[in-house]
Design a protein that fits this description.
The structure is a single chain. By secondary structure, this protein is α+β, with helices and mostly antiparallel strands. It has a single domain, classed as Gcn5-related N-acetyltransferase (GNAT) (Aminopeptidase, 3-Layer(aba) Sandwich). The chain is 29% helix and 29% strand. It has a seven-stranded mixed beta sheet with strand order 1-2-3-4-5-7-6. Helix 1 crosses helix 2.
Length: 175
Protein backbone atom coordinates (compact mmCIF):
# COMPACT_ATOMS: atom_id res chain seq x y z
CA UNK A 1 0.00 0.00 0.00
CA UNK A 2 1.41 3.42 -0.92
CA UNK A 3 2.16 6.01 1.75
CA UNK A 4 -0.62 8.64 2.02
CA UNK A 5 -0.05 11.85 3.93
CA UNK A 6 -0.63 15.59 4.04
CA UNK A 7 2.06 18.25 4.23
CA UNK A 8 2.28 22.02 3.93
CA UNK A 9 2.81 23.11 0.35
CA UNK A 10 5.92 25.01 -0.68
CA UNK A 11 6.81 27.33 -3.53
CA UNK A 12 8.41 24.34 -5.29
CA UNK A 13 4.91 22.77 -5.44
CA UNK A 14 3.23 25.82 -7.02
CA UNK A 15 3.37 24.76 -10.69
CA UNK A 16 2.10 21.25 -9.93
CA UNK A 17 -0.73 22.65 -7.76
CA UNK A 18 -1.77 25.15 -10.45
CA UNK A 19 -1.84 22.31 -12.97
CA UNK A 20 -4.09 20.29 -10.63
CA UNK A 21 -6.38 23.29 -10.06
CA UNK A 22 -6.62 24.01 -13.80
CA UNK A 23 -7.39 20.36 -14.50
CA UNK A 24 -10.11 20.58 -11.82
CA UNK A 25 -11.59 23.60 -13.60
CA UNK A 26 -11.70 21.63 -16.85
CA UNK A 27 -13.32 18.67 -15.10
CA UNK A 28 -16.00 20.89 -13.51
CA UNK A 29 -16.73 22.48 -16.89
CA UNK A 30 -17.06 19.04 -18.49
CA UNK A 31 -19.65 18.20 -15.81
CA UNK A 32 -21.58 21.43 -16.62
CA UNK A 33 -20.79 22.80 -13.16
CA UNK A 34 -20.32 26.56 -13.16
CA UNK A 35 -17.75 26.48 -10.37
CA UNK A 36 -14.19 27.84 -10.77
CA UNK A 37 -15.02 29.07 -14.29
CA UNK A 38 -14.17 32.74 -13.72
CA UNK A 39 -10.41 32.57 -13.06
CA UNK A 40 -10.65 31.57 -9.40
CA UNK A 41 -8.65 29.99 -7.95
CA UNK A 42 -5.68 31.56 -9.69
CA UNK A 43 -1.96 30.95 -9.22
CA UNK A 44 -1.90 34.06 -7.01
CA UNK A 45 -4.49 32.48 -4.66
CA UNK A 46 -2.35 29.35 -4.33
CA UNK A 47 0.81 31.42 -3.88
CA UNK A 48 -0.90 33.35 -1.07
CA UNK A 49 -1.97 30.06 0.55
CA UNK A 50 1.66 28.92 0.51
CA UNK A 51 2.89 32.27 1.84
CA UNK A 52 0.31 32.15 4.66
CA UNK A 53 1.08 28.49 5.47
CA UNK A 54 -2.50 27.33 4.83
CA UNK A 55 -1.94 25.37 1.60
CA UNK A 56 -1.62 21.60 1.89
CA UNK A 57 -0.69 18.95 -0.63
CA UNK A 58 -1.89 15.38 -0.30
CA UNK A 59 0.84 12.93 -1.18
CA UNK A 60 0.40 9.40 -2.48
CA UNK A 61 3.58 7.38 -2.76
CA UNK A 62 5.75 10.48 -3.17
CA UNK A 63 3.54 12.22 -5.75
CA UNK A 64 1.23 15.21 -5.24
CA UNK A 65 -2.25 13.77 -5.62
CA UNK A 66 -4.30 16.71 -4.39
CA UNK A 67 -4.42 20.18 -2.91
CA UNK A 68 -6.52 22.10 -0.40
CA UNK A 69 -6.32 25.27 1.65
CA UNK A 70 -7.14 25.21 5.37
CA UNK A 71 -8.24 28.71 6.35
CA UNK A 72 -8.00 29.45 10.07
CA UNK A 73 -10.30 31.95 11.77
CA UNK A 74 -13.31 33.90 10.59
CA UNK A 75 -14.02 33.50 6.89
CA UNK A 76 -15.89 36.57 5.59
CA UNK A 77 -17.80 34.36 3.15
CA UNK A 78 -19.34 32.50 6.11
CA UNK A 79 -20.60 35.56 8.00
CA UNK A 80 -24.01 35.37 6.32
CA UNK A 81 -25.78 32.04 6.02
CA UNK A 82 -29.31 31.53 4.74
CA UNK A 83 -31.70 28.56 4.88
CA UNK A 84 -30.05 27.43 8.10
CA UNK A 85 -27.40 28.38 10.62
CA UNK A 86 -23.99 27.44 11.93
CA UNK A 87 -24.05 25.10 14.94
CA UNK A 88 -21.51 27.24 16.79
CA UNK A 89 -22.62 30.64 15.49
CA UNK A 90 -21.27 33.03 12.92
CA UNK A 91 -18.24 34.22 14.89
CA UNK A 92 -17.03 30.87 16.23
CA UNK A 93 -13.39 29.75 16.07
CA UNK A 94 -13.09 27.34 13.13
CA UNK A 95 -11.11 26.16 10.14
CA UNK A 96 -12.55 26.30 6.64
CA UNK A 97 -11.49 23.92 3.89
CA UNK A 98 -11.23 25.60 0.49
CA UNK A 99 -9.86 24.96 -3.01
CA UNK A 100 -9.93 21.16 -2.90
CA UNK A 101 -8.70 19.53 -6.09
CA UNK A 102 -7.39 16.10 -6.99
CA UNK A 103 -5.01 15.40 -9.87
CA UNK A 104 -6.86 13.65 -12.70
CA UNK A 105 -4.64 10.58 -12.29
CA UNK A 106 -5.99 10.13 -8.75
CA UNK A 107 -9.63 11.07 -9.33
CA UNK A 108 -12.22 8.40 -8.49
CA UNK A 109 -10.07 6.66 -5.88
CA UNK A 110 -11.80 8.24 -2.84
CA UNK A 111 -8.60 10.10 -2.00
CA UNK A 112 -10.47 13.37 -1.46
CA UNK A 113 -12.12 11.73 1.57
CA UNK A 114 -8.71 10.74 2.89
CA UNK A 115 -7.39 14.24 2.28
CA UNK A 116 -10.34 15.76 4.14
CA UNK A 117 -9.77 13.30 6.99
CA UNK A 118 -6.17 14.50 7.20
CA UNK A 119 -7.33 18.14 7.17
CA UNK A 120 -9.72 17.34 10.02
CA UNK A 121 -6.78 15.90 11.96
CA UNK A 122 -4.64 18.99 11.28
CA UNK A 123 -7.52 21.19 12.46
CA UNK A 124 -7.71 19.24 15.71
CA UNK A 125 -3.95 19.39 16.23
CA UNK A 126 -4.13 23.17 15.72
CA UNK A 127 -6.78 23.32 18.47
CA UNK A 128 -9.88 23.77 16.32
CA UNK A 129 -13.03 21.79 17.10
CA UNK A 130 -15.25 23.30 14.41
CA UNK A 131 -14.69 22.87 10.66
CA UNK A 132 -16.58 24.34 7.73
CA UNK A 133 -16.62 23.73 3.99
CA UNK A 134 -18.80 24.70 1.04
CA UNK A 135 -19.40 23.68 -2.55
CA UNK A 136 -21.47 24.60 -5.59
CA UNK A 137 -25.08 23.30 -5.59
CA UNK A 138 -24.40 21.40 -8.83
CA UNK A 139 -21.22 19.73 -7.56
CA UNK A 140 -22.81 16.45 -6.49
CA UNK A 141 -19.48 14.62 -6.30
CA UNK A 142 -18.09 17.07 -3.72
CA UNK A 143 -21.39 17.16 -1.81
CA UNK A 144 -21.22 13.37 -1.49
CA UNK A 145 -17.56 13.51 -0.41
CA UNK A 146 -18.30 16.20 2.19
CA UNK A 147 -21.22 14.29 3.69
CA UNK A 148 -19.26 11.03 3.66
CA UNK A 149 -16.50 12.85 5.58
CA UNK A 150 -18.91 13.55 8.46
CA UNK A 151 -20.01 17.10 7.69
CA UNK A 152 -23.63 18.18 8.06
CA UNK A 153 -25.34 20.57 5.63
CA UNK A 154 -26.06 23.82 7.49
CA UNK A 155 -27.46 26.19 4.84
CA UNK A 156 -26.33 28.38 1.96
CA UNK A 157 -23.57 30.97 1.75
CA UNK A 158 -22.72 33.21 -1.20
CA UNK A 159 -19.48 33.90 -2.98
CA UNK A 160 -18.15 37.46 -2.66
CA UNK A 161 -19.18 40.11 -5.17
CA UNK A 162 -19.28 40.42 -8.09
CA UNK A 163 -20.08 36.68 -8.44
CA UNK A 164 -22.43 36.29 -5.47
CA UNK A 165 -23.37 32.75 -6.49
CA UNK A 166 -24.70 30.34 -3.83
CA UNK A 167 -22.73 27.55 -2.20
CA UNK A 168 -24.06 24.78 0.04
CA UNK A 169 -22.39 25.17 3.44
CA UNK A 170 -21.44 22.32 5.77
CA UNK A 171 -20.07 22.05 9.30
CA UNK A 172 -18.38 19.39 11.40
CA UNK A 173 -17.59 19.44 15.10
CA UNK A 174 -14.86 17.22 16.51
CA UNK A 175 -14.07 16.34 20.12
Amino acid sequence: MPALYLRLSTNKDLNKIVKIINNGKTFLKSQNINQWQDGYPAAEDISNDIKNSIGYVFIEDGEIAGYAALHQGIDPMYLKISNGNWITGTHARYTAIHRIAMASKFRGQHLAEKMISNLITVSGVLGYKDLRIDTHPDNKIMQHTILKSGFEKRGTVHMPAPDGSPRFAYELQIV
